[in-house]
Design brief:
Length: about 375
Amino acid sequence: MEATCTRPTVTELRLSSFKSHRGASFPLGPLTLFAGASGSGKSTALQVYESLARLGAGARLEEVFPDPVACVPERAAADAQGRRGFRIGCTVEGPVGPVRLDLAVQAEPELRIVGERLTSGGQTLLTTALRDPGRSSVQAAWYTAGSAPVTRAPLPDDLLGTALLPLRVAGKTEGQLRVLAAAEQTVVALRSVFACDPQPREMRRPVAVGEGRLRRGCENLAAVLHRTRHQCARRHARLATAARAGCVGPVAELAVEELTDGTVRALLARDGTGAGASGTPLGRLGEGELRYLALALVLLTGPGVLAMDQAAEVPPALQSLTVLADGFDRYMDRRQSRELLSLAAEICGDGHLRLVGAVGDAAYARGAAGVTVVDLDRDRTE
């Protein structure tokens, strides 16, 4: 890929048959918020995105879907062989144009991938099908356009075939090169994901400095602030600015205090000194303030600070980080929600980061520049 190419990004999510969704297709922009009443399927949409991301990173099916029967739509009847399952997919835009990935998963009587299809430009590049239920493999066929139109070979039935293609396709014919380009674009987009759900209760405690990479629950927030304060003064200053907008009382800076037991705790310095007497430890903040600070930190940092595994073989300039944030505005008041959305829109606008979140009420986001609101109570297609 050349540096001038578009970064691979997931632009559509399909829940063809998954839990409460049937025939659902959702467009994804740089900043997308799923909104709707409790039980409308907001978290489910993010679960599917994360599941595809984990499969794209090489995770096995049972790791991604530990309770696969719960993913089967209610009242879905079994076929004559007692089989039930679910179907999901996505579209990835990038240098080779739109690429569609569709996946059929059998949940009962045994968890396995029974069908996978990768298509681009009207051409089917990969198909898999279960031919022998007694074997733990599927029959795959990928486009060759050489002396034979396709190449056939077995692939494991518990791994995403698209993620295996770079290891299986020789790349000698024009068709093989096209398959490789589409597969690599899809895998790069799926692997460039950080799913986070800040847990205020865990964020209140002092923590060891550690490696300084922010975990999913953001419980090591103080350790990451310790790192950013010393290694990235500009981003740390922007985070302090965000704290002033979303936290109660004056905020001079985000300080980190080293305790006698070797741990660190973060605090809001009220007068710029960072001294404990004039600062408020983050442990005393409200749940909304803590989640606001954690998500602001995620937006203002990057893969090097987040606990995620991007495609190391792809230059950072060609990757686009996608943050999945269930409960994007959970525990926050309207002012905090608007401030966080404004920060997210600014960051997502430069093209290096995308965000997909779930909110209960997106009234404050409707009409905001750069924000796509998917209202599951109104827009969902059955």
